[in-house]
Amino acid sequence: MAEISVKVLFSFAAGNDIAMPGTSMDLESIKAGLQDGTVIRERLQIDASRTIRIAKMLAGK
User: Fold this and answer.
1) Which of 8, 52, 54, 59 is the most exposed place for a label (fewest CB within 10 A)?
2) Segment 23-51, tens digit of pLDDT
């Protein structure tokens, strides 16, 4: 994996909910992490739902 990819995986492992700017390399890193167990699907779902909830709150929905 490229250096930036490792940074994204460590970022999620540390509890960050979102990677910015969210490049295609980040997406591939997350997919690879799901396959090799570095990223836990349940944790990713929790992070994604929290991000969506905050976006809706900020949009007034």
Assistant:
1) 59
2) 888 888 888 888 988 888 998 898 889 88
Distance CA 58, CA 10 (A): 27
**Long-range Cβ contacts of 5-8 (<8 Å, 24+ apart):** 5/29, 5/32
Contact 44, 34 (CB under 8 A): yes
pLDDT over 70 (residue 4): no
Domain span at 27 = 3-58
Which pTM does this prediction carry? 0.64
Q: What is the domain count for the chain?
A: 1
- Reading the block at residue 35, the tokens are 């396959």
